[in-house]
Amino acid sequence: MNPAELAPLVRRAQRGDTLAMNDLLDALAPYIGRICAPIALGHGPDAAQEALIAIFKSLKTLRAPEALFTWARTIAVRRPVTLASSGRTFRTRVGGVVTRRAHPRRPSDPGDPA
């Protein structure tokens, strides 16, 4: 779907239409996943889920439904970075056991103070 086709769907989702929200989720999830995967390293799916939650929680603040993908991309880029800098842990399944481990941090810029 192109942005013009999504605009009516976004407006319905903003009014609380759960079917529209579901269709919007189907349209956004692959896009958000592709954005979050390289940022969150091994935790792309977790970061994408967190970004999608943030997107849907703030969907009513989107003023121009035609700008959905640009607006969602901004959130999707910021969310994994925020999670990484907070040191938040993610649940990971290892050998059938769920463990918790810290979100991997990206290597710092050599010019950044340690």
From TrEMBL:
Gene Ontology molecular functions: DNA-binding transcription factor activity
Annotated stretches, region: Disordered: 94-114
BP-aspect Gene Ontology terms: DNA-templated transcription initiation
InterPro entries: RNA_pol_sigma_r2
Top-level taxonomic group: Bacteria
Stated name of the protein: RNA polymerase sigma-70 region 2 domain-containing protein
